[in-house]
Amino acid sequence: MTAAAQRPFELICEIEPATTPDLTRVRHQIGVLSPVATTFLIPDNHIGRATVSSVAVAHEVRQMGGRSIACLNARDRNLLGFRRDLLTAAAYGVDQFLFVYGDEPLAGARTSELNVRTMLSEGRGYAETLDGERHGGRHAGGPSMRFGAACGLRPLPAWKHAADFLCVQVGFSLDDLVAWRSTVDVDVPVYAGVIVIASAGMARNFTIPGLTVPADLVARLDKDRNAGVDAACDLVLAIRESGAFDGVHLIPVARYREVAARLERSLPRS
Question: Please, which contacts does 22-27 make with residues 24 or more away whose CB atoms are closer than 8 Å?
């Protein structure tokens, strides 16, 4: 039995972030998905547009009684800004983070000071400093913050073994996901990526390098707008049955209502 099979299966649902100061839609997503989600992942300027801070939204999730993971990307921050975000998170009680490199910005240049590797290293050291300050310099047991890293369906670099959990790039093939997982020897939780393709237009404009939407799904979407919801939910259930992963990082996009309804019937919370 794998380590994943021994741990409870988790469903990490990604929230569409707010691009205005109004958090009404964010709160609605959290409320709708709460019956099926074990944790919410909050993106960080994920398409190169300014959004409400992932740390602030993660705090909002906590206020609503949920668990959260705040995504922090290397593109938009230098070391001081990174430490500011961890300090703010500590003040808000946000303790889980996913580090990503970040998509290319729509305008301007990316900072070269940070990448995921340095964020893992610097984050660990700074979290220990914050723990020491919080407890008057006394050792208080294990670290209070958990740091995850994103990875593709490629050989895992040795330095990513230092992460507390891994989120795998979205895919459409259970066989490909399971084959990749069989090559990765880590004891930390590993979450497979699944995305809802909301329309045929989205399928044809899908832009993740090296990944295309299966032609049969595009054809189904031309006839049935819910085909993407069905395909994503079926893949979530298949990943769960495989026992190869600790859970799924699910990106419902705007179809979170349909996803929640489907998974509430098929994947009840334990």
Answer: 23/52, 23/57, 23/60, 26/52, 26/57, 26/60, 27/60, 27/64
Q: Does position 212 have pLDDT exceeding 80, yes or no? A: yes
Provide the CATH number for the domain around residue 235. 3.20.20.220
| Contact (Cβ atoms closer than 8 angstroms) between residue 149 and residue 249 | no
> Count of domains in the chain?
1
**How confident is the model over 20-44, as pLDDT tens digits?**
999 999 999 999 999 999 999 999 8
Query: Cα(90)–Cα(112) distance, rounded to whole angstroms?
Result: 25
H-helix or E-strand spanning residue 14: strand 10-14
Structural domain boundaries enclosing 120:
3-266
- DSSP labels for 131-171? HHHHTTT---SS-S-EEEEEE-SSPPPGGGGGSSEEEEEE-
Under the banding of pLDDT at 50, 70 and 90, the label for residue 141 is very low
SS3 annotation, 56-103? HHHHHHHHCCCCEEEEEECCCCCHHHHHHHHHHHHHHCCCEEEEECCC
Distances (CA, A) of 105 to 46, 110, 119, 138, 163: 9, 7, 19, 42, 26
Query: Which SS3 state, helix, strand or coil, does residue 179 take?
Result: helix
The pTM of this model reads 0.90
Q: Which residues contact 185 (CB under 8 A, 6 or more apart)?
A: none
